[in-house]
TrEMBL record:
<dbReference type="Pfam" id="PF02771">
    <property type="entry name" value="Acyl-CoA_dh_N"/>
</dbReference>
<dbReference type="InterPro" id="IPR054617">
    <property type="entry name" value="HsaA"/>
</dbReference>
<feature type="domain" description="Acyl-CoA dehydrogenase C-terminal">
    <location>
        <begin position="234"/>
        <end position="366"/>
    </location>
</feature>
<dbReference type="InterPro" id="IPR046373">
    <property type="entry name" value="Acyl-CoA_Oxase/DH_mid-dom_sf"/>
</dbReference>
<dbReference type="InterPro" id="IPR013786">
    <property type="entry name" value="AcylCoA_DH/ox_N"/>
</dbReference>
<dbReference type="InterPro" id="IPR009100">
    <property type="entry name" value="AcylCoA_DH/oxidase_NM_dom_sf"/>
</dbReference>
<keyword id="KW-0503">Monooxygenase</keyword>
<comment type="similarity">
    <text>Belongs to the HpaH/HsaA monooxygenase family.</text>
</comment>
<protein>
    <submittedName>
        <fullName>Flavin-dependent monooxygenase</fullName>
    </submittedName>
</protein>
<dbReference type="InterPro" id="IPR036250">
    <property type="entry name" value="AcylCo_DH-like_C"/>
</dbReference>
<dbReference type="Pfam" id="PF08028">
    <property type="entry name" value="Acyl-CoA_dh_2"/>
</dbReference>
<dbReference type="InterPro" id="IPR037069">
    <property type="entry name" value="AcylCoA_DH/ox_N_sf"/>
</dbReference>
<feature type="domain" description="Acyl-CoA dehydrogenase/oxidase N-terminal">
    <location>
        <begin position="4"/>
        <end position="101"/>
    </location>
</feature>
<dbReference type="InterPro" id="IPR050741">
    <property type="entry name" value="Acyl-CoA_dehydrogenase"/>
</dbReference>
<dbReference type="InterPro" id="IPR013107">
    <property type="entry name" value="Acyl-CoA_DH_C"/>
</dbReference>
<keyword id="KW-0560">Oxidoreductase</keyword>
<dbReference type="GO" id="GO:0004497">
    <property type="term" value="F:monooxygenase activity"/>
</dbReference>
Length: 388
């Protein structure tokens, strides 16, 4: 089934590229594009089979995301983010899964995981309130996943949870006026104090140890992978896709380009141009190869019934943040070598440059923190596995 989805997604790439300007003007991906993706089955790739999902290999899912982002960065970004959420929903208690998909298996969720909201323990659940930023694709979702610190009656923090909130319990505030990833509609979410039942929450301490109550019903090895491995790869993959799109456009432009400043020299005859292309291509390929190889290594441990070593999980984060950097370095080099025509509105290159740098500032792409943790573990320092 994954091959059919991938083939259908590839058929849509020219359309996504044509709609890139429209997405920027709307400041969200056109509804027609989301509907077209829905019809390919893309959003079902990581969804449980018992809710009409495909339980696809995550490498196939990430491959589809990379392809989409190679046509338009914003469409690739929200596809990745909205598309990974069914994986987390599958870890929630069955009551929450039924609420989301019981009557409509096409239901989508957006998210904002930074714990900027507050949840207070009460009988049977929590009173949640607050404001969250950067909920990409929120206009195309009818639920949201929100991070929040849990306080007990004495005012002490006792947990960090994800809260699943239906559309009638939150407000979307339009604040997304930005220079990159303009089409992602990453607006604010506001929740006035509302009751969230226990079953609609998931502790990050549980996901940190690769556990969720939903594993009782969803027994596939897919749902035993580390949360942070999948979700940080979800952020880097579109950026690698943007680099692929930038690479393809740069090569095409250079094949046609005549450099007036160099007495009419053809850019394709410039040996330095050839070297730049080779270096950029290697950086992009290396970023992708390491990302997917690490996911494969984690899958192999799960298939053998083994606990995934912390060092491997830290390696996933190391190569994920460096994968983002490699992809952006490649885009920068290609953009700088493309000439003034690359600055024109409507070109993929200038949009990829803006979109990739916008994606770079996501918290998942904080390189120093991830690299320090990897190095500390190599030196034998104690590391909290809950964050990796």
């Amino acid at each position: 089934m994954s091959k059919q989805v991938l083939d259908a997604v590839r058929d849509l790439l020219p359309t996504f590229r044509e709609r890139a300007d429209e997405a920027e003007k709307l400041r969200q991906v056109p509804e027609a594009s989301v509907k077209a993706l829905e019809e390919t089955g893309f959003f079902r790739m990581l969804q449980p089979k018992r809710f009409d999902g495909f339980e696809s290999d995550p490498v196939d899912f990430f491959t589809a995301v990379k392809e989409i982002a190679s046509a338009d960065g914003s469409t690739g970004w929200i596809s990745s983010v909205l598309g990974v959420h069914p994986w987390q929903v599958a870890l929630f208690p069955d009551e929450a899964q039924q609420a989301v998909w019981g009557s409509d298996t096409n239901t989508r969720l957006s998210s904002s995981y930074a714990p900027t909201g507050k949840a207070v323990q009460t009988e049977g659940g929590y009173l949640l309130s607050g404001k969250w930023s950067f909920s990409s694709g929120s206009a195309h979702a009818s639920w949201v996943l929100l991070g929040g610190l849990v306080f007990n009656a004495e005012g002490h923090v006792v947990d960090f949870k994800t809260f699943m909130v239906p559309r009638d319990k939150y407000e979307i505030v339009d604040v997304w006026n930005v220079v990159g990833l303009r089409g992602t509609g990453s607006n604010d979410i506001v929740v006035a104090e509302t009751f969230i039942p226990e079953a609609f929450t998931l502790s990050m301490s549980d996901t940190g140890r690769c556990y969720g109550p939903g594993q009782a019903e969803n027994t596939s090895d897919l749902y035993k992978l580390p949360f942070h491995s999948l979700f940080t790869t979800t952020i880097t993959t579109p950026i690698v896709g943007m680099a692929n799109g930038a690479y393809a456009e740069h090569v095409e432009m250079q094949q046609k380009r005549v450099r007036a400043a160099y007495l009419g020299e053809k850019a394709s005859s410039d040996p330095f141009a050839a070297v730049r292309i080779a270096r950029a291509g290697s950086d992009i390929d290396a970023a992708w190869a390491l990302l997917m190889a690490n996911i494969r290594d984690e899958q192999a441990h799960v298939a053998r019934g083994e606990q995934i070593p912390l060092q491997l999980r830290l390696k996933v984060r190391r190569d994920q943040v460096l994968g983002t950097q490699r992809a952006i370095d490649a885009i920068d080099a290609l953009f700088e070598a493309s000439g003034g025509r690359a600055l024109a509105e409507g070109t993929y290159l200038q949009r990829a440059w803006r979109d990739a740098h916008a994606g770079r500032v996501h918290a998942a792409n904080d390189p120093e923190r991830a690299l320090k943790m990897f190095g500390d573990a190599e030196f034998g320092h104690k590391i909290d596995p809950g964050m990796y």
